[in-house]
Every structure is written in structure tokens, then in C-alpha cells.
Amino acid sequence: MEKVYIYGLCTDIDKTIRYIGKAKNLEKRLKCHYSQRNVSKTHKNNWINKVINDGNKIVISIIEIVDINDWQKREIFWIEKYKNNLTNTSKGGLGGSGKRYNISYGNCVDIVKNLNINSETEWRLISKLETFPDNIPKDPRSYFSENWISWGDFLSTNRVSDNLIKENYITYDGSKEWIFKNIGIVKSRKEWKKLVSEGIIPNFIPNRPERFYKNKNRGWISWGDFLSNGTIANQLKKIVSYSDAKIIINNLNITTLKEYKEKQKLYVNILPAHPHLTYKNKGYTSYEEFFRF
Which of 64, 221, 268, 281 could form a disulfide with 225 if both were Cys (CB 3.0 to 4.6 A apart)? Predict the structure, then answer.
């Protein structure tokens, strides 16, 4: 007989069970809870986020091992037993979404293919419409947690998520070099997204480089650096002090605001675009004084 686990979630410092569910693979189910915690503001997800924000961890443990045909009634039994401390919002026996659907993962994929939904974001919007089929779970990743592969597989787009192909990604510098040689200078993040949507960016470069290369210190500096367009992020600029700015504009023979705006474009990393705001309460009194040395 095939077995499944009735499990409980608690924290690493407090063994009080706060959620009860069922799973075939405990490790995979725990990862699913972590990855789904920001998808919706349920009692369980709010609890998980608070635990993580407090610097603690969620622990999963076996309550009972049951036959796959008996898990509904046993889950209902344990939820009733621990109900005073739980974040569960249903009595149990319905699966992760709180509703039972008479459809398999494979059949659901076949139906969804005809809906022509191209992304998880698009799914979230369309699934809220009144015309959305009521025989399909609105949160398929949670409902089909035991069979879930990826959004690309579920929506039949063949797109693969970052965490599944990250082993194939080239380095930060390698990505910069490929983009510059094969595409040229990409002017903005908006243009980058357009290139991604058009399928121009190869699968060995992450669609969201700011996330992948920033994680685990893989080399991320800024969008301006990655796209080789010369744009410097505000947090990387080293704007000089008010007195040093006056010295610089004097050396550049800047005497008017018009001249300042023209020259400032060449020194965006050290001279502010709006000195009256940047140097407010730091020496600035007027542009007349600012241009007088």
C-alpha cells in the first residue's frame, strides 16, 4: 500500500504545532511552504513570514504515517485535535488549496494549455476572473504539490525557472561580454525586459540577472554596469560635498544653471543633478551663491 505522511509544522525554538497537512515527500513539502509564503496572505503564510523575520526556522515533523486512501479522515482527526493552536483555516481532508478537485495534474495541464496563459503573473490575474473554469485549482502549485514540476511545465510554455537551470548560467562577466558582443549596449532595464520577452536572451543568461548574480555574491554591481550603458545607480554615486562641488564648477568655468546642467551630464557620479535639493541644509543658499567662488 502506498503511504503518505500526516505532518506538523512548528518552529525550531517552539515545538507547538501550528499547521497540519499531508505529503508524500516531507523535504519537498517544506520547501514548497517556504517558496509559497509570499503568494497569498493566509494565516499560515503570515506565521511563516513572522518566524523567518524573527530569525528562526520552520521545522516539519511526522505525526502519523497512513495509507493513501485514509489520509483525509486522519488529517481531519489531527486538525481537530490540535485546532486551538493551528493556522489551518479548513477542517482538513481537502488538499492544500482547501477545495477538492476531481482532476489530475496531467489532465489539468491539458486543459490549461488551451487557455494560452504564458506566465505565473498572467495566471494570477486570469484565475481571479469570474469566467475562470471552476474545475481547476487557482493555486495549482500548492494543490498539485506532489506532482508539481514548474510553471513552465504546467502552462506548457517550456520556460524553466531560474532555480532549475542555474547550473547552466555563465558568470556575471561572461554574461556582460556576451550581451555586449551579440546585442550591443542595452539602454535600460525596460529594453532588457523587452529582449527577454522576445526570446533574444539565451537560456545560459538569467532573465533576472539582478536577482541571480546578487544572490551569494555572484558579482552583481548595477544595471548600468551589467548592460554596459554607463548609467550609475544612485547608491554607487560618490557625490562630493558642497564646498568641493563649488571648487569643481569653478575649475570648469561654470557660471549659470544652464552651463551646469550641460556639464553635469559628464560628471553624474560626483555632481548632483539637483544641487538645491542635494545640498539643502548643507551649505546651499541660492544658485547665485553656488556659482560664486
Answer: 221
